[in-house]
């Protein structure tokens, strides 16, 4: 990426582009920005050195950076406003996105924005938000998963690489840009909102939109326009202690709308003293010398389709969870609805097991209390999808329709997909026994939980085991 003054397409060419008029999709987005910033027709801009369709690594063609004076009456501080161009279809000629017409979403249907509090000494906008936008866009293009309002991103690192407590992100709707109609279809401006670890966990255990609404009413946490302040020292819990009760009530009464996360996960039949190892021991079937369940590429694609159209059927939203920019990306699917069997699920023979020993990494395992309290307690399901291969484990409640486990056989698999049925009378015990995982910083690993009467064992291990 490089700096550029002024907007592209106005005869300057460069970066593999021929000079000429601004493409219609791009012009529609620029017009929306001009309505908000009529006095900033030529904002500072970060642009991809080599455009994505010419083999460049950065999917976003441009990121414009505006100076916003804020609104003192509304408690909105002066800030920098970053706007991306490239997740939607800017060109309408098929060079990046499939041409779908004006009635369908343009490209992925959204562009990213971010509002960063302007420090008094700053004369120009920092460029690190542009790097984060490009990283998120790369995930979207590689996974073909959109980012939606209410989604969350676990980053595990201060967003600006400082000592800040703001280390993760939620997604809100940009309060000024909102939604725009373009010749290539509608586009929503999805705003990145920097949050603390405590706020991320609240979004995971409850829902992102609920936490966004809380942030909007607290000027100290971002306020009405959700302005990220990297020097913020207090979470929403410290700014307004009554929030803890509000979120707890939401979890209890509404549950969570997060229905799955990626994980380092392995499973095997039997109540072994030594847990299956996520990095060395293959999951069930291969460990027994049974080559029949070795997954081909086509089968891997089929099981992914099953997870998307079957137990993960619903709103179709996706949120990502990732570490710092040089770490692997993992996906957290945000969806509702019961299970639904699909043709791809039927391609595998159902295998039933007497007992199961599950191994899972700490970060993902810390969401087990969420899976139980926020999902299964409300008659829903929760899936852990392996980041290493096509294997997946879904916990289901008796109320979930379409699952292939039942009270007579609570553990069963179809190919690389294991389901674990948690009976209603066993759920309170699990919730109580696994409650310490809700605070992963206090967990000593490896840690194994065993329920001999249910023939179930779960081992929590480190991230790199």
Helix content: 10-25%
C-alpha Rg, in Å? Answer: 23 Å
Query: Which residue ranges are poorly predicted, with pLDDT under 50 across at least 5 consecutive positions?
Result: 9-16, 280-296, 306-347
Structural class: alpha+beta
Number-wise, the strands total 21
Overall outline: globular
The main β sheet shows up as: 9 strands, mixed
Mean pLDDT: 82
* Termini separation: 36 Å
Tally of alpha and pi helices: 10
Strand proportion, as a percent range, falls in 25-35%
Explain what the structure shows:
With 465 residues, the chain is an alpha+beta fold. The chain has helices spanning 24-36, 128-143, 197-205, 208-216, 236-239, 243-254, 297-309, 362-365, 368-375, 427-433; strands spanning 2-5, 44-47, 62-68, 79-85, 110-117, 152-154, 168-173, 179-182, 185-195, 258-263, 265-269, 317-322, 329-334, 350-352, 356-361, 381-386, 392-396, 411-414, 417-421, 447-451, 456-461. Strands 1, 2, 3, 4, 5, 6, 7, 8 and 9 form a 9-stranded mixed sheet that branches. An 8-stranded mixed sheet has the order 12-13-10-16-17-19-18-14. A 4-stranded mixed sheet has the order 11-15-21-20. Strand 16 (381-386) and strand 17 (392-396) form a beta hairpin. It is globular. The model is unreliable at 9-16, 280-296 and 306-347 (pLDDT under 50).
Write the layout of secondary structure elements.
Elements: E1 2-5, H1 24-36, E2 44-47, E3 62-68, E4 79-85, E5 110-117, H2 128-143, E6 152-154, E7 168-173, E8 179-182, E9 185-195, H3 197-205, H4 208-216, H5 236-239, H6 243-254, E10 258-263, E11 265-269, H7 297-309, E12 317-322, E13 329-334, E14 350-352, E15 356-361, H8 362-365, H9 368-375, E16 381-386, E17 392-396, E18 411-414, E19 417-421, H10 427-433, E20 447-451, E21 456-461
Parallel strand pairs: 5-9, 10-16, 15-21, 17-19
Antiparallel strand pairs: 1-2, 2-3, 3-4, 4-5, 6-7, 7-9, 8-9, 10-13, 11-15, 12-13, 14-18, 16-17, 18-19, 20-21
Helix pairs in contact: 3-4
